[in-house]
Structure prediction request, 1016 residues.
Amino acid sequence: MIKKTHFLGLLTATILAGTTAVQAQTRLTIATVNNGDMIVMQKLSSKFEQANPDIKLDWVVLEENVLRQRVTTDIATKGGQYDVLTIGTYEVPIWAMQGWIKKFDNLPAAYDVNDVLKPVREGLSYNNELYALPFYAESSMTYYRKDLVQKAGMTMPDQPTYQQIKDLAAKIHDPANQVYGICLRGKPGWGENMAFISTMVNTFGGQWFDQNWNTKIDSPEWKEAITLYIDLLKNYGPPGASSNGFNENLAMFSNGQCGMWIDSTVASGMLYNPATSKVADKLGFAQAPIASWPKGSNWLWSWALAVPESSKKEDAAKKFVTWATSKEYIQLVGETEGWVSAPPGTRQSTYENKQYLDAAPFAKFVETAIETADPVNTTKNPKAYVGVQFAGIPEFQAIGTQTGQTMAAALTGQMKLDQALKTAQSAAERAMKQAGYPKK
Amino acid sequence: MSASIATGAVKSAPTVRRSGQKVRTLPFVAPAVLILLVWMIVPLAMTLYFSAMRYNLLNPVVEFAGIGNYQYLLEDPSLWTSMWNTLVLVGSVLVITVVAGTLLAVLFDQDFPGRGVARLFAIAPFFVMPTVSALIWKNLLMHPINGIFGWFSRLFGFQPVDWFAEYPMTAVIMIVSWQWIPFALLILLTAIQSLDNEQKEAARMDGAGPISMFFFIILPHLGRAISVVVMIETIFLLTVFAEIFVTTSGGPGLATTNLAFLIYVRALLEYDVGGASAGGVIAIILANIVAFFVVRTVARNLEA
Amino acid sequence: MDSSKSKIGVFILGWGAALVIFFPILWMLLTGFKTEVEAISTPPKLFFTPTLENYYAVFERADYMSFAINSIVISVVATALAILIAVPAAYAMAFFPTKRTRGTLLWMLSTKMMPPVGVLVPMYLLFRDFGILDTRTGLIIIYTLMNLPIVIWMLYTFFKEVPGEILEAGRMDGARARQEVTELLLPLALPGIASTALLSIILCWNEAFWSLNLSAHNAAPLTAFIASFSSPEGLFWAKLSAASTLAIAPILVFGWMSQRQLVRGLTFGAVK
Prediction:
């Protein structure tokens, strides 16, 4: 008997030890993505803790998909496990509308909110009020290997067309030496292959939904865009393209296995950094390729920090968010990690900073790409939704993911293109109908 | 029949007759049963409730949907595909692990230098987290450019296979089988080792070669052990998730979407709690059908 | 002569099979000691100067010990609790079977066949209301329940093999039920209980769904640790391998040390 009680006592003690924390400080639980820039933030956050000894930071770093599920479940059920969330342009307006995240008003003058690039600021606003502060922002652009293009006896225009991209890819493609003409996202997901495919469809004159929320996937514009997409990857792409997302392609390009790559501007910092890239000295930049409708050829996304309504530590949380998105933070990264690694795309002042411009020759491309991205007037024909590479409605995640899967099936040849477009169209129609569209 | 299903040890486990003394078993069983009941019924009740509601996490207006969620799901062609995929996955892995497990067990029953250490190596995958093993296979082995398999095929002058695009289901089956072969091996090896040496000796005296020995002596002896392998593996294989999540995300298309993954898509990619709950209910029904058949078959075998 | 030839054959086959099966793990282990560039070089590098840089990187980014301790505490406590609840149930079922015993056992097992994601949101709401999100207590409760059916079943098969006469004799001497269990049955079934506990610990350790979804920082076990390394930007294979090695090393060593014990339980009474 004694033994048993003792055991139980020990047991309870162990359990309790895990749950009672010392409450002397304010502990903030910060959920973030395991992207390079965020890992730098985690590393540098000790500076914040030194300056604010009453605040202690607990980090939850997860891969993007897992993180999105975790924080969405938590915020929608008001679980209250996090004090700072890392979310994107897609989530912010929707969550703000639901009243899930706190407004950022009364920002200190030193924060200089007007320094934040306008398209980025607007993407994180709801009813003209800011609900999250941008940590970094990105658009899309074309990366290429100067040496390979030169060897092929060709040049890359500042803004290529998709036809030119195809010609280049054909010339560069050299699978015997494991150099592939072009790398593109193939991994299914609304934030993976569909982010790229959407911009491609946009520039071919297509769109997700029309003005009355009718699904437009089985349109000739989609077919033309996807045909070329499959053509490019099948004939001039790497094997395994359907499993490659942003990270996989980044790894391949920095390892010298891609001749061209059309993807997020945020990759430029990593590709241009000799410590993380083998091709830093051979790297060329161009705008994202265009087709018949030049607008909407590049996307707009930002990773931003928000404070959930359920957080009981609003002041401390906002203090941290303000710090991590401030000019001083960018300065700190520039000084400690090198200017090429400074979080891009958020502030005018970054693009006026001589040190940054010297270290990052791609800066102007990135700035132009972000400033020209327009989430409202994107497509050739009018659309009901806001967003370049996504539609800003809660149902889009489901539709985008499902369409992404179907496009991957078309890419690998599991489905014929026509059939894939039809399947995606009817699945999206079903989902929209289920959600009660068209809405007035 | 009752007890034998689980043990198969009818002969060796005599029933205790408690002459003249009534033992109340309720107080003993009650805690476990009660706890499991609560564990089963509370989520089940909530699942049933939500399955009748239109409830999307991103659009949190809970309203009554009647059978709408079920209708939506049953009309969805992906439901049937995913059920078929579930059966293919479970069936293939069962066959592969039992066959490979038996052959390996016979092999490791032989004496050879370093057998103990070799055996440790062979059972290691059983201890590896499914997430980790999927990550290793996807990135280090099956990656068509930098993976070992790709290198091997180039070495012999072949085009590397793009596993997750060309043979997605086969790839998933390979990974899952790799994880479960050690389990089959462990159990079957123990079973073989329990075989009477005298019996083997006698058969050998009668002039039985190694092959007829395997089919007439060893295999019949393994019947029960195989049943146990099949039953336990089925329980875990019906809900395979991490391997698919890490490697193919259910694709391309629906090629590797099993029921567990389909429900995951509903619940955590579409945040459709109503639809996911309806899927959960369907999965429970399917699980019980499978349980019924598997248990029946296995029970008959254990009886013999 | 013939037999020595076949001996060599068996030796080659046996070791060949073992190495083929073990290869993925071995390769992961090696890759963890390469630089990122070596890790993806083709042809693969077999000989290289081992480096610890990936391990430094992993330790710098994540508090490995905190994750590992959570894994250990949660697995061990959940296993202990499950056994505590299961012993009386298995005892009653094994020694006083009724018509419902079989049904109850099967029903318990069938509770394990439902994909957990189907009940995630309901569970999340429950956890929130009880205030046990991101606590070890919460995960311990989930794991106890999750493994209870298997634990009961395994114990049941062991208890069935204990000759009833021994307990009967004890009863004649006036032993009461509790003494019967603690003083007679448990010592006899100890090996079985040990192997049940081992299996339960392994299953808890490797469970990746509940642990990811119901924990944030305080209770996060090693499965969450892996999720933060699974697809970061840039070259990541070597760091991923190092992190994976760290996540599975404890349970692999533990499993190897206890494998003989474990095997006994895994046979579920199919082998006497």
The radius of gyration of chain A is 23 Å. Residues 23-138+301-360 of chain A form a domain with the D-Maltodextrin-Binding Protein; domain 2 fold (CATH 3.40.190.10). Chain A has two domains: 23-138+301-360, 140-299+376-434. Chain A is about 45% helix and 15% strand.
